[in-house]
Structures are given as structure tokens and as C-alpha cells.
Amino acid sequence: MASLDRVKVLVLGDSGVGKSSVVHLLCQNQVLGNPSWTVGCSVDVRVHDYREGTPEEKTYYIELWDVGGSVGSASSVKSTRAVFYNFVNGIILVHDLTNKKSSQNLYPWSLEALSKDSSPTGIIVSNGDYDREQFAENSVPLLLIGTKFDQIPENKRNDVLTRTAFLSEDFNAEEINLDCTNPRYLAAGSSNAVKLSRFFDKVETSVKIKCMQSFTDRRRFNFKSLHND
Amino acid sequence: SYRSVSIPPQVRQYVVQVVFSVTFAFSCTMFELIIFEILGVLNSTSRYFHWKLNLYVILLVLIFVVPFYIGYFVVSNIRLLQRQRLLFSCVVWFTFMYFFWKLGDPFPILSPKHGILSIEQLISRVGVIGVTLMALLSGFGAVNCPYTYMSYFLRNVTDSDILALERRLLQTMDMIVSKKKRIAMTRRQMYQRGEEQNKQTGFWGMIKSVTSSPSGSENLSVIQQEVDALEELSRQLFLETVDLQATKERIEYSKTFQGKYFNFLGYFFSIYCVWKIFMVKFWSQHISFILVGIIIVTSIRGLLITLTKFFYAISSSKSSNVIVLVLAQIMGMYFVSSVLLMRMSMPLEYRTIVTEVLGELQFNFYHRWFDVIFLVSALSSILFLYLAHKQAPEKHMTL
């Protein structure tokens, strides 16, 4: 059951795009020295000050669940990693800016996660095809992170940024492009850091809404059951 | 079950894709030519010409092109040597050629009348490597195929077994999460306390800093060790769950029509393989040739599927080029040696073209060598699978 204080964000993407490096950067504020193959799922915790500086300020411990694998994995692997997709409050989609296929694979990745989500605000996708309207209705906040930004030659940068702009429009999500070996991209006060903060604020707001909804549902249920007695 | 075999998207170097495709294409053409030989398609002189042409191209690719590119991409991955890539690739290639040539010494594969630059020198060595590979794979396949497909061996996996494992996995993940939260909280408190400590100056500040307990960091390392152990456990549980799911799917598949068909084939082929192990030759050569043909087709498909799975399992963006090239090398040598060995199962009248094209190699050596390695591989596989099978049910009984 989702407890009041649990905030769970999935980190999805093809193998080798740099999800573990991104998670390490977000949680430890350090560059990951020896990235290795993620087997199953690895979790890390990021401390986030919700609405910092306001009276509603609260410290959240956001769980980042880094699920390893590829969209072409065997069905036994897919059924197993589906257990990680329950009670998700946000999804970070990671792709490699130098690898177009990894960006295209984000569509099946997001569908895989969103259609297996058992909590009621997740969307149910019946035919497995991408449908932009369903993403517009989706209430789970998404964030796009593009890695290996430094490896793109100057003359190709505009094309890549145009492509990612289309992606962020399709997913109805903000995008951050960075290089995991350089913490400067997420330095405090930079536009990337602001986007990140906004995303986590959105996640926590949706957690609060969900909790209030389940609270009012429970009250309604108790009220009904009282009436039926 | 239908699985498509394709080159994974991480291999972006055009030359690697081309080399793999060329190797595969010319390897398949060799089998095509054998079939043409038997069916009498095309003129016999043009068949001979195509055999020779195909063989030269394949040998060129397997001995010069692929090893050179393997060396090139391995060297490219090593930062120290990157500046002089071409030079070091040539060094790697010459080392390969040296060992490749030395391979001829311990094996009696050539008759002395062959010159040093004859094609037999090259084919014979490629043949030894390929035949060893083929025998290892066939031995393992002969044992593993019935084990995998025959329902007699399938362990009984229920949904509740899988659910129990999944629950354990999620519980482990939750424990990892709560410990990491504690670490993060402790670190934050230490950081904030550190700031406050810096503000404390003077005599009382000094006393306070001495008496406050530095237990924060000691606690952290203990919790971190617990986290490491839990993470290792979560990986094991994940892999076990995947294994159970795969077994459950295999059980479901075995109940379908296709599954039953393959189950029957499994029994049939396991009998054939057992017969092969004991080398009883009652059947006529034509029937054995058809069976060998079927085995080759399924083993090509099986080989490519296995190679793809292997590739997905071990590839990373750095090494994918090298791996694809190594797989192309293995595949090419495997196919060349299949042609060598097929001669044994071919009817007499068709053997001559193979002998003509491949020169006068000591074919008997290859047949004996294959049988020896096949036997060794099959027996080791039986032992290995027996131990694995014995161990597995006990693991799940502790749930």
C-alpha cells in the first residue's frame, strides 16, 4: 500500500544510456565512477525540499527506481520487472542523445510502465500502440533526460535538440539534456536544476492529491457503510 | 516460439554490419551449393566455379577481414593505444596469424605434398577450429534440446511459487529503500550539525565539539554494508523470478499444439542423438543425409538465436562491435566445417565435388576429431545439467 510519505519515481530507458549515472548524479550529487550492468532494479534516494522557503516546506525522500533491461527482453524478464511498476508517482525517461533508437524506444518503455501500473490514476492501454491523447490524459508526471550531450558535434546540436523537442511534446513532459560526467549541468540555479525541481514538486503534489482522494474515498465508504447498517 | 533474429541497434558502425552480412550470405551460399549438387541444378562446371569462388571469398573474410577488424575495434576501445590504431591492429593480426599457422603442427591434417601457400593450408586450420566448435555445440545441444523441450524434465512451477518470490523481492527492495532513507537522513543531519558546529567558537564551542559523539559516520558504514548485502540478494531474487517465469512459460507452451509437436520431435531427436553417441550405422546414407540437413537448418536457427541472446546478455555500447565480429567469425568457421563434416553423411556420388573443391584433406581426421569432442561435450553437458537440475528444486523448496 502507498503510505503517506512514500514517493516513488521510475527511471526507465534502454541499457547503456546512462540511467545508473543519472540516478547517482541526482541522489549523491557525484559522478558515478564505475558504471556496471544493472541486474533487476536498483534504488536510490534523493532528498528534496518541497516548496523550499515557503511555509509549506517539507522534506521528501524520493525513491528513484532504476529498472534495467531493454524493450526487446524476453517475456519472462518483462513479466518479472512489471512488479516494480506498481504505485508509481512519476517517471523519468532517459535516452542517449547519440543513439536515435534509444529515444524511439521510450515510447514502448512508457507504455510498458503505465499499462502495468495498478494504482487507479494510471492509464490503461489496450492495444499497445502509442496514442498521443492518452499521454495528454496521463496524470503521472514525466520527465525526459537526454545523456551524452557533450558527445554531439556542434553542427548536429540543432537537429538533436529539434528531435528532443518533438519528444517532449509527445510525452507532454519537460526535457533536460546533460552529460553525466559533468555535475555542472545540474548546478543550483541553472535552468536544468529548476526543471528538475519543478518535476519533483509536481510529483509530490500528485502524491498529496492521491492521498487526499483515498482519504475522502475512505470517508465516503465509511459513511456509506454507516448508512447501510 | 517465433523469435526474430536481427542485428541489435547498438551496432552503428556500417562496416561491422556489412562484414557480418557478407559472412552470413557466403556461408549460406555454401549450403545452397550442396543442395544444388544433389538436385543437379546448374551446369556442373559452373557449380564448380561457384564453389571455388565462394570458398575463396569466405576464407578471405575469415582469415583476413574479420580478425583484422576485431583487432581494430578492440584496440580502439583501449585509450592508451588509440593514437596508433592501425599499427596495433596489424600487430594483433600478425599475432593471430602466427597462432593460426601453429595450429597445423599438432594435428595430422595435411598430406606432405601440399605446398605452403596452397588453399588446403588455410582450409585445414579453419576446419579444425570450426569442427571443434561444432562438436562442442552439438554435444551440448544433443543433451540440452531434449532436456529443455521434453515435459518429463520440466519442474512444476505454480503461480503461487512466482507470487511468493515476487513478494520477497519487493520486500527486499523496500528494506533497501528504508535503509537508504536512513543514510540520507543521517547524512543531512550530520551536514546540518557540521554547519552549526562551525558556528560554535570559543571555549564552550571547543568543549561541545569534543563531547558530541561522532557515531554518525560509524553507523553509516554499518548500514551501507547491510544495503550492499540486500542489493546482492535482490539481484539473486530477480534472476530466480525470471527463471521461474521462463519455466512457467515453457510449461504453458508445451501444452499448445506447437509445443506438443516439438515435444515429439524432442523425443525423436533425443533417440537419434543417443544413437549418434553410440555410432551405430544401420540407416541408409540418404536418410541420414536428410536428418543431417534438418539438424543443420535447426542448428543454424538455434545458433543464430543463441548468438543473439548471448549478444544481448553481454553487450555494452563499447564492446558491441567486437562481439558482432567475433560472432561472425564463429559463425563462418562453424559453417565451413559443417560442409567438411557433411561429407561424411552425404551419399557417395556427391562426395566427389566436396573432395574436389576442398582438396585432399585428411577428412577422416576431422570425423574422428568431431566424434571425440562431441562425446566429451555431451558427457560434460549431461553432468552439468544433472547437477543444475538437482540443485534447483532444493532452492525453491526453502520458500
Automatic annotation (TrEMBL), chain A:
<dbReference type="InterPro" id="IPR025662">
    <property type="entry name" value="Sigma_54_int_dom_ATP-bd_1"/>
</dbReference>
<dbReference type="InterPro" id="IPR027417">
    <property type="entry name" value="P-loop_NTPase"/>
</dbReference>
<dbReference type="GO" id="GO:0005525">
    <property type="term" value="F:GTP binding"/>
</dbReference>
<comment type="similarity">
    <text>Belongs to the small GTPase superfamily. Rab family.</text>
</comment>
<comment type="function">
    <text>Required for KRAS signaling regulation and modulation of cell proliferation. Regulator of KRAS prenylation, and probably prenylation of other small GTPases. Required for lymphocyte development and function. Not required for myeloid cell development.</text>
</comment>
<keyword id="KW-0547">Nucleotide-binding</keyword>
<keyword id="KW-0342">GTP-binding</keyword>
<protein>
    <recommendedName>
        <fullName>Rab-like protein 3</fullName>
    </recommendedName>
</protein>
<dbReference type="Pfam" id="PF08477">
    <property type="entry name" value="Roc"/>
</dbReference>
Automatic annotation (TrEMBL), chain B:
<dbReference type="InterPro" id="IPR022535">
    <property type="entry name" value="Golgi_pH-regulator_cons_dom"/>
</dbReference>
<dbReference type="GO" id="GO:0051452">
    <property type="term" value="P:intracellular pH reduction"/>
</dbReference>
<keyword id="KW-0472">Membrane</keyword>
<feature type="domain" description="Abscisic acid G-protein coupled receptor-like">
    <location>
        <begin position="282"/>
        <end position="390"/>
    </location>
</feature>
<dbReference type="Pfam" id="PF12430">
    <property type="entry name" value="ABA_GPCR"/>
</dbReference>
<feature type="transmembrane region" description="Helical">
    <location>
        <begin position="324"/>
        <end position="346"/>
    </location>
</feature>
<feature type="transmembrane region" description="Helical">
    <location>
        <begin position="14"/>
        <end position="35"/>
    </location>
</feature>
<keyword id="KW-0812">Transmembrane</keyword>
<protein>
    <submittedName>
        <fullName>Golgi pH regulator</fullName>
    </submittedName>
</protein>
<dbReference type="GO" id="GO:0008308">
    <property type="term" value="F:voltage-gated monoatomic anion channel activity"/>
</dbReference>
<comment type="similarity">
    <text>Belongs to the Golgi pH regulator (TC 1.A.38) family.</text>
</comment>
<feature type="transmembrane region" description="Helical">
    <location>
        <begin position="55"/>
        <end position="74"/>
    </location>
</feature>
<dbReference type="InterPro" id="IPR025969">
    <property type="entry name" value="ABA_GPCR_dom"/>
</dbReference>
<feature type="transmembrane region" description="Helical">
    <location>
        <begin position="86"/>
        <end position="103"/>
    </location>
</feature>
<feature type="transmembrane region" description="Helical">
    <location>
        <begin position="289"/>
        <end position="312"/>
    </location>
</feature>
<feature type="transmembrane region" description="Helical">
    <location>
        <begin position="123"/>
        <end position="145"/>
    </location>
</feature>
<feature type="transmembrane region" description="Helical">
    <location>
        <begin position="366"/>
        <end position="388"/>
    </location>
</feature>
<dbReference type="Pfam" id="PF12537">
    <property type="entry name" value="GPHR_N"/>
</dbReference>
<feature type="transmembrane region" description="Helical">
    <location>
        <begin position="264"/>
        <end position="283"/>
    </location>
</feature>
<keyword id="KW-1133">Transmembrane helix</keyword>
<dbReference type="InterPro" id="IPR015672">
    <property type="entry name" value="GPHR/GTG"/>
</dbReference>
<feature type="domain" description="Golgi pH regulator conserved">
    <location>
        <begin position="118"/>
        <end position="183"/>
    </location>
</feature>
